Amino acid sequence: MRLSLPFAALAATLLSLSPAFAADPKPLRIGVLNDQSGIYADMAGPGSVIAAKMAVEDFGGSVLGRPVEIIAGDHQNKPDVGSAIVTRWIDEDGVDVIADIPTSSVLLAVQEIGRTKNKLVLASTGGSSDFTGKACAPTGIHWTYDTYALAAGTGASLAKDGPWFFITADYAFGTALERDTAKAVEKGGGKVVGSVKHPQGTADFSSFLLQGQGSGAKLIAFANAGSDTVNAIKQANEFGIPQSGIKLAGLYLHITDIHAIGLQTSQGLILTQGFYWDLNDETRAWSKRFYERHKAMPTMGQAGTYSAILHYLKAVKAAGTTDTATVAAQMKATPVDDFFSHGGRIREDGRMVHDLYLLQVKTPAEQKYPWDYLKLIRTIPGDEAFRPLAEGGCPLVRQHAAN
C-alpha cells in the first residue's frame, strides 16, 4: 500500500524523533590532567577532579544541548606520559579542553600539543611563567598563579631579610621559580649568595640544608613543591636551622602543605596565594561544599580549576559554539566573575590577571577552628602581582601590536 505524501512525511518525522533512532548528543569532554598519586597529589590530584565536576554541576551539566563530562588522567609528573594521555584524549576520546596540569615540564609539553591540535589548555596548577612568556600559545590560558607572581609576593616582601640561598627542585618549575624570585629579591635591594638543586621526590635534604647553612645566608628559600617542600621544611626545623637565626621561605606553599607540616613547625612562614578558602563568605561557602566531598580544604589550584572550567563553559554558551578560537576570544572578552575572582581578565598572552594574597601562617595560639591556618597581610592587585605584558616575550603580544 502506498502512503500519501503528507502521511509519509509525518511518519518520517516521527521516526526521526524516536529514541531508538535519534543519535545521542556528543558529550563535551574536559580532561583534568595531574599527579593523582605522587608528590603533588594533595595540591591537585583527586581534589582538582572534584572541583572540575563541581563546576560542571553548578553550570547545569550540559551546554549547547551536549552533556559535559570530566575525565581524569595521571601524568605521573612525566612529560612523555602526560603527552601520550593528552594525544589519546584528543585523537581517540574527543576531549575538547585540558585543565589543571601541575608539573611545568608536563604543562609546557601539553601547551605544544594544544597549539598543534588547536585545543584549549587551562593551566590552573602548573606554574612556570614561561607558559605565557616565550612558550605562549593562542590556545593556552594561565589561571591561578605563576612563578613571577609568587616572586612578586613572597620574594619582594622578604627581599631584604637575606642574604638568600635557594634549595631548588631540578625541573622546569623550580628553575623558573628561583629565576623569578632572585630577580624580585635583587630588584628589592636584596642579595642572593647561592643555590643548590635537588631531584624531584628527595627524601633526605640534609646535604642541601647544610650547604645553605654554610653559605652565609640569613634566609633559605625552597623553590620546590608538594611533599618536597613539606619534607624540606620539616627537616630544616629538625636540624634547628630557624633556631640558629636563619629564616625559611616556602616559595610555593599550599594550605595542604601547612596541614601536613603543622602550625607548630610552619608558624610565621610567609606565602603568596591566588586563593584562600577563608577570605570571605563566598570563598567559605564554596570551600565547605568542596570539603564535604574531599575532606580537605581546597588549594588555590583546585579552586582555580573550578573557576577556569566554569568560565570556559560560560564562554561556550555565550559564543554558541565549541570552536577553539571563538571560545578563547569570548573568554578573553568576558571578565571572570565567581568566588575566585570578581573582575579578573585574560590578556592576549593568556595570563588571567586577578588579585593575589600575601599571607602568614598563624601560631597555634591564633588558630580558632580546623584549617584556620593563615592570616592576610595584604591583597596584591593583579597588575602588580603579574608580569607586565610587554616583558614576557610572548610572540602573540608582538603580533597583536603589529596588527
TrEMBL record:
One GO term (biological process): amino acid transport
Domain annotation Leucine-binding protein: ranges: 27-362
Signal peptide start-end: 1-22
Matches recorded under Gene3D superfamilies: 3.40.50.2300
Alphabetized UniProt keyword annotations: Amino-acid transport, Signal, Transport
Family in the record: Belongs to the leucine-binding protein family.
Name of the featured protein: ABC transporter permease
Organism from which the protein derives: Xanthobacter flavus
